[in-house]
Amino acid sequence: MAFSFDPTDWQIVPARTFAELRIGEIFRAPSRTLTDAHASAFQTVSCDNHPIHYDVGYAQRYGHSAPVVHGLQVLAFTAPGATLLPHNFGAIFVAFTELSAKFLAEVHSGDTLFSALEIVALEPVGDKGQVTTAVTVHNQRGELVLSGQHKYLLRTMA
Fold it and tell me: Residue 158: what pLDDT?
């Protein structure tokens, strides 16, 4: 019997329905250590050229031990695609609709960040469903450096 490969059946995890998702499920991203190269690349993409992000002397004059990684770069560590969450959604995904974030501690080059998304609410919205996740980013010292929420809209009927 010959094996027939179908790329449309290639999934990292089985896709689930809205009804199969559970409050309390946690989706973690691999840890990543930030480097000066990451900060420089983000500075180029964001056009945020404030010296607090790259000038050691400037940062120290204003009370920082080192240049501060862009807050939006830290927020990017909560991207759902860095976890298996969107793979669980599969074809029922409609939109990433909302996010919030609180920046709680400075991040510097050399810090290793650990992000997670936890499902905290599953709410029907008409003929669709809304998933709310609590998002967190911790550093290598266990300090919570960012907390917030994401909301996603999903189809409830496949």
Answer: 57
Per the prediction, the chain carries an average pLDDT of 95
CATH of the domain at 101: 3.10.129.10
Tokens of 131: 């998933």
**Average pLDDT rounded to a whole number, residues 44-61:** 95
Can you give the length of the chain in residues? 158
Asked if the structure places residue 65 within a domain, the reply is yes
Measured CA to CA, the distance from residue 146 to residue 139 in angstroms comes to 9
| Domain of residue 151, residue span | 16-155
Measured CA angle at 21 (ends 20, 22), to 5 deg: 115
Q: Tell me the per-residue pLDDT of 59-77, one tens digit each, with 9 for 90 and over.
A: 999 999 999 999 999 999 9
- Identify whether 2 is part of a domain: no
Residue 136's contacts (CB-CB under 8 Å, 6 or more residues apart) are 115, 116, 118, 144, 146, 147
Report in angstroms the alpha-carbon separations of 49 from 14, 44, 65, 88: 43, 8, 19, 37
**What's the CA gap between 27 and 122, in Å, rounded?**
15
> According to the model, what pLDDT value does residue 9 have?
81
Answer whether residue 66 is part of any domain: yes
What's the number of domains the chain is made of? 1
